[in-house]
Amino acid sequence: MIAALAPLSFLAQSATGNSFDVPANVVFYIVAAFMVFAAIRVVTTDNIVHAALWLILVLSGVGLNFLLLQAEFVAITQILVYLGAIVVLFLFGIMLTRAPLGRADDLDNNMRPIGVAVGLLLTAVIAFALIRTFGNDSLTFEAYAGSQAVAGNNRTTALANEIFGPQLIPFEVLSVLLTAALIGAIVLARRD
Amino acid sequence: MLLNQFLLLAAILFSIGVYGVIVRRNGVLVLMSIELILNSVNINLIAFSTYHGLGGQVFALFVIAVAAAEVGVGLAIVLLIYRNRRSVDIDALDELKG
Amino acid sequence: MWFLTHTWIMPALMALSFLAILAVGKRLPKKGSEIGVAAVGICFVLALLTAGSWWQHTNDTGESGEHASGVLAVAPGAGDAEEHDPEAFSDVEQGCSRVVDEADHEGNSEKAEADHEGDTEGEEHSSGIAPGESASAESTAVATAEEGEGHAATKPVVRCFTWFDNGPADSSTITVGTMVDGQSVFMLVVVGLISLLVHIYSTDYVNGDRRYTHYFAFLSLFTASMMFFVLAQSTLQMIVGWELVGVCSFALIGHWWEEKPNSNAALKAFLTNRVGDIGLLVGMIILYFAAGRSFSILDINILAASGGISHGLLLVASVCLLAAVMSKSGQFILHTWLPDAMAGPTPVSALIHAATMVVAGIYLVARLYPVFFEGLSIAGSSVNLLAVVGAVTAMFGALLAFVQKDVKKVLAYSTISQLGFMVTALGVGAWTAAMFHLFTHAMFKACLFLGAGSMSHAAHHSFNMVDDYGGLRKIMPRTFWTFIIATGALAGIFPLSGFWSKDEILAGHGTFFSEGGNGTYHVMLAMLIIGAFCTAAYMTRTIWYCFYGEYRGVGTPHESGPRITVPLIILATLGAVVGFLNLPKSIGPINFPESLHTQFEQFVEPVGAYFPSISHAEFNVPLALFSLAVAGLGVLLPYLYYFKGGLAPIRDLSERNALARWGKNVLVNKYYFDWLYTDVITGFVKGPLARAANWFNAKVLDGIVDGVGAGAVVTGQWVYENIDQEVVDGAVNAAGTTATETGGVLRYLQSGRIQQYAALFFAAAALLAGVFVVATG
Amino acid sequence: MLALLAQASDVFTKPTVDYHALAPELILVGTIIVLALVDSWKLERARPVMSAIAGLGLLAALVPVITLAVDGTDRVLLDGGYVVDSMSLVLKALFIVSAYVVVLLSINYMAEGDYWESEYYTLLICSVLGMTVMASSRDLIGIFIALELLSIPAYMLAAWRKGDERSNEAGMKYYLMGVFATGILLYGMSLAYGLGGSTNLEAIGLQLADLGSDGVPVVALALLFTIIGFGFKVSAVPFHTWAPDTYEGAPTPVTAFLAVASKAAGFVALIQVTYFCFIVRSDVIEPIFFVLSISSMTVGNLIALRQSNVIRMLAYSGIAQAGFMLAPFAVASSDPALSLQAVVTYLVIYAAMNLGAFAVIIAIARRTRSAELEDLGGLFTYMPGLAVAFTLFLASLIGIPPLGGWWAKFGVFASLIEADSGLGWTLAIVMAVNTAIAAYYYLAVARAMWFDDVPEGTDTSPVRTPATLGFAVVITLIATLLFGILPQVVNDVTDFGLVALGG
Q1: Do residues B35 and D184 make contact, with C-beta atoms less than 8 angstroms apart?
Q2: Considering only CA atoms, which of B98, C697, C234, C22 is closest in space to residue D401?
Q3: Contact state of C752 with B97 under an 8 Å Cβ cutoff
């Protein structure tokens, strides 16, 4: 799967320098349309298992976006962690709570209008602010050019240097966080 | 490619996620909606990191890891509630109020 | 001098007594009261010695009041900082006031050049800098030497230690200490005296109470708090003392807390005071910054008096502080707690009303007088907030006192009214008059409260004078006579003390009657005169109900024991004579000898850079006669109504008094109206009109018949029922209700449903984002 | 391949780690490991010693905090991402001591309630570790991770009474609202990163200062969303809704922990982002804090008036107190040092008095089995010591001198008035009114204890309070009194001057 994605990354890299990024744009818009549709299905579908499946599409789309943005390592992590772990967790959750596997008409509460209003308001405000601020700024990938030089064309190494350099303490703290989550989740979820 | 096309996509995902957490009654579905919100943040971070270097990517990795932990904890709490109430309808959790 | 620098012993001793009583009181033979009485006795002696020492000190400084007072009365420049003479603050310890320190510093260098020859002066100066008590001998010489220059400033004795440094950023230190000048010394004596008498009285009065020990412990703490407040060197200490006084009153008012109304009264007192406390806190913080980050009272006063603080800031600060004064001293509209506070034991009421709690507000204004004087522009104007609040309170309080059945409530409203007099006096610039009235009022009001307690002691713990008293004159002669004397003093009958102090206040208004005031406050004068009239009238009514007629209560009343009557006699005597302490210089053609007149003023009133230069009104014979006449009328009308109304035929009165004649005519008219309505206009108008007539009879005509004084009863009743109980209490309650109702509505937000929370969360975020994005975009 | 890696790794410069600076955190991590090991080695037999280990670990972590404070030099690690200075040390000490008191509160509660004890302490210490990291982080990533480390264990602790549906509900509400807040926070942080070009707060601040104020509404968005994310943590209205429900449902020691330490950590996060970064755009953040502060103090107080449950009342009063603490942020720019000092002073004093109040409630509930106001009636007659202590804590919360709460309020008033701005004066007035309102419901509790009758059927025989609980009451009481009578103590440690802000 990852191998299949490699050309995409190549495609994106070819777009560096801002001269010719039509193919990347085409891919982006197709993926974006899918993602939005899938995301809407996640929050509207009346089948809980379908929601999880639509979520897979959204998360994969996010991974594709990362590739378009030349963040291969993050993209791979995204796929591994989300598809490999989180969605599986969701499926386990669905099974363990005996959720109805077919259609169910009681998945939503009576607050749809409020939800729509809040969602639209947020979109409008954020979109207005983004458009006013960033306008037509195009992506240049300048920052990556520098890190490539430093790390011998190996951005993953540069990423590692970043994590184990300036972000060392947060990284170590994260390990404690995962341990704590593990301990607590076991205590809460187990029968006793 | 424009910066804004990614940012706007993220904003839309964010809002859809917000809609989801407001209207979904099933605890697991609420957690899924939360994932939409967190992923929109990651798109933002990666898009900005093309300008500012790898800090954003590191941030995104941390967010992914934390999201995994949060989902785990969330599902544990959902399971706990399911065990006591035989239901994951979070809309019915209104014993504490006022 | 030792006594002036060691005043801290008094509050410390009382605090120690509080702890000792709590710790071992229950195990002592007298249940701890002996500790309290002994401690307060020592304090009183110390207070007297301090007063003597201060007397010495002022005489040393000023030797001669003649020049001093001459200067004071007119000298406009006495308060200017530029002219201020550093010698005036030679008894201020280094570090207690930044302004003085700086002035000293400058003065020092100048002096070094200028006053080479004056050896004594140089020495005096160094002794001023070195914190010591050695100054008295030299300072005498110096002060007398400076006499010639025409400045005889009060020399406050300030001692302090550093509590803590408020950070190196601004290098301001917060100090704690004592500031002793005439004002605090006189207040110490009052607190000591009243507290001592109340202690002695209480040993009998609350004898056998189950919380006897607890009661005495809190009396001690109450006294300690008030002394701490009085002696405060910094405004911070004042806040602490102020709050402590509030807490003690909370404990004592709620002494018999098993009864619901008592604990409610305690809570109401506390809550109302909280409102003011916030004003105090804010006001003090404003002053702290205005005075360049200093809590020192001396700093604040000097800067305020010399224009070192802008008028705007002083105005805001004085309004904030006024809120505090209004709640603490029961000024209209925050007075409602005070009558309720009668739920406490009577000696506590006496203490609260005469010497502690409620006069704390007056003391605060007097202490920070430059702030109010400049902030509210007291000089040269004809109206200001302080005077308005005071005058309204003086008038309304007196009206309200009319309609009370409970003798303690009469006295409570009377206190409100008299505090209004003091506040008005401060508001019109008659500082000394206010302090003098505080002094005299403490004596006779304490006497009245203790007298009321004595009567209730006799009448089975009832305070309902209308239903349960009567005819006590024969049975309790000592109580009766002391009560009569105190009443006379309160009503302002010549030559009792109240006459002198009240008259000084009235003269201080600077109206067409009198000259030399700080402004021309016509309206306030009129209101105070109405208040004075009512005062005389309601007290006469009280006397009637308590002491005349037949005994209406249960059981056989008897005179109280010596521990109750002796304090009464002492207080009545003082209430009669202390007025002579501040005799005016002359009354018409009679000139008083120098050793007699204005002693109180010289002793108490601060002069110098830390006090505004106020001018004093001369004693004015027409005004005095007029106010005496008003008071006489106030006594006379109820006398005619209550005492004679039932006994002598009405026509007898009408020949003696024009107003009574008018009253009699009205009385006849009442009958006439009755006849008119019932007999002549019969028929179709009979029903409604008769009812109206009956109403008219009952409500209006009776009122007219009762004359002006009784008309005031109706007004008072109306004010009591409609304004005091409805509007004011209603507003207070409504504010509370609105707050809780709003809380109730807001509570629905808290539905318990997570997703409504989520919707609120994100909607709020989105709305805020929208607002800020549009605002900044 | 390995050679390639080795070659690549030579450009990696190993960060120098100052182990002294990290000692408090390392000791806490060590404590976590010891707890886990002892638990798995001794199993059930280990339960009685768990609390002791946790308590000792916390006290041990306090030692390097003190040595660092004595040393006095500011230590900057990881390119400015992690700073150990006087302010962070004060806050670390605050967190550790608060957690220690919470451990004292928990011992009997946990042992008698048959809860998962060793895991409880493990999670508690994890959360404290997150707080101490928060106190030093000057980097968005560090702050975010620290926030998550302190929050995620707390979500689970709120649901710790597993069999109790109310506790489950409390945990669920706390968790969901927390995650929503995390979402908003991250979105704001991502925008801040985008605008600032770095995750380092100081760098972002410099960049934000350079951006013009026109045409960049995203700045407002970034700042607002970040502040809202932490506003949840400090339970600022309208992001407070979880607090009363969670406080009521969670185990009471956990409630104390949430109400004090967790809230303080939220404030610390706000301090970090505000004073080290966002302050350059005071035109944006001051109105935000103004709105949050006014709505928090007013709404919190008004709803508190209607509460009949003391814990819920404390929850709403905590919301109102958060409003007071937010007030100095609204005048942050006029005198940063003064307003920062006001906030930290308030935090320290608030921790003492609020923990004390919870300690007393836990002690009382051992007898009354309830925190309803009516069940506290006549408490003075059979638990005089606790009634007096509770009264003192309540009086301190009202702000009556000479108790600590007074000095805290004084600092806030001082900073508001000193700022002499419209926002400052408005806040001062609203706060004054609110302080007066607040007295009412605090005194209602005092009145119930002192004046009301003992409810029917209450056992009024003398009660023995466990030593640890008594100790907790005593130390918080001493602190409350000490801070009021000698404000010098707290004043000295919270006076960071301009050094801390120099960054």
Answers
A1: no
A2: C234
A3: yes
Pull the structure tokens for residue C10.
């008094």
Q: Is the peptide bond before C612 cis (omega within 30 degrees of 0)?
A: no
Give C180's strand partners: C157
pLDDT(C283) > 90: no
SS3 of residue B24 by DSSP: strand
Searching chain D, which residue's CA lies closest to the CA of residue C752? Answer: D245
CA distance D492 to chain C (A): 7
The token pair at B65 is: 């890891």
pLDDT tens-digit series, residues D211-240:
876 667 888 888 999 999 999 999 998 888
3-state secondary structure of C590: strand
Question: What kind and span of H or E run contains A186?
Answer: helix A168-189
Tell me whether strands C590-591 and D75-77 are parallel, antiparallel or unpaired: unpaired
**What gap in Å lies between CA C4 and CA D383, rounded to an integer?**
45
Interfacial B residues in 47-76 facing A (CB < 8 Å): 47, 49-55, 57-58, 60-62, 64-73, 75-76
B98 within some domain: no
DSSP 8-state code for residue C381 = -
Any chain C CB within 8 A of the CB of B22? Answer: yes
Residue C541, Cβ neighbours under 10 Å: how many? 25
C129 pLDDT tier (thresholds 50, 70, 90): very low
Indicate whether B95 belongs to any domain.
Answer: no
Q: Report the pLDDT value the prediction gives residue D356, as an integer from 0 to 100.
A: 92
User: How many domains, chain B?
Assistant: 1
Q: Which two tokens stand for residue C593?
A: 């000898």
CB atoms within 10 A of CB A191: 6
Q: Which of C618-622, C769-773, D246-250, D445-449 has the highest mean pLDDT?
A: D246-250
Residue B46: which CATH number?
1.10.287.3510
H/E stretch holding C468 reads helix C465-468
Can you give the residue range of the structural domain that contains B66?
3-90
Alpha helices in C132-291, H assignment, sequence order: 135-147, 182-205, 212-231, 235-253, 260-290
Backbone region of residue B60 per phi and psi (left: phi > 0; alpha: psi in -120 to 50; beta: other values): alpha
Question: Within a 10 A sphere around the Cβ of C319, how many other Cβ atoms?
Answer: 18
The helix (run of H) or strand (run of E) holding residue C714 is helix C707-718
Q: Is residue B63 part of a domain?
A: yes
* Binary contact (C769, A122; C-beta < 8 A): yes
D337: domain range? 295-503
| Element containing residue D84 per DSSP (H, E) | strand D82-84
Q: Which residue has the higher pLDDT, D242 or C210?
A: D242
Number of domains in chain D: 1
Q: Which of C762, C768, C771, C776 to mutate to test the interface with A (most CBs of A within 10 A)?
A: C762
CA Rg value for chain C: 28
Rounded Cα–Cα distance for residues C55 and C68 (Å): 14
pLDDT in tens, C692-714: 544 544 454 444 444 544 555 55
Tokens of D137: 């982080």
Range D240-244 average pLDDT? 87
- C291 pLDDT band, cuts 50/70/90, is confident
Tell me the C-alpha distance between D276 and C705, whole Å. Answer: 79
Which tokens in the block code for residue C764? Answer: 């709020």
Strand residues in D290-381 grouped as ranges (E): none
By the 8 A CB rule, do D350 and D325 touch? yes
Chain B residue numbers with beta carbons less than 8 Å from the beta carbon of C747 are 98
- φ, ψ at D234 (rounded to 5°): -90, 5
CB atoms within 10 A of CB D211: 16
Instruction: Please give the model's pTM, rounded to 2 decimal places.
Output: 0.74
The predicted structure's pLDDT at residue D300: 85
% of chain D surpassing 90 pLDDT: 32
C-alpha C764/C-alpha A121 separation (Å) is 11
Residues C754 and B77 sit within 8 Å (Cβ to Cβ): no
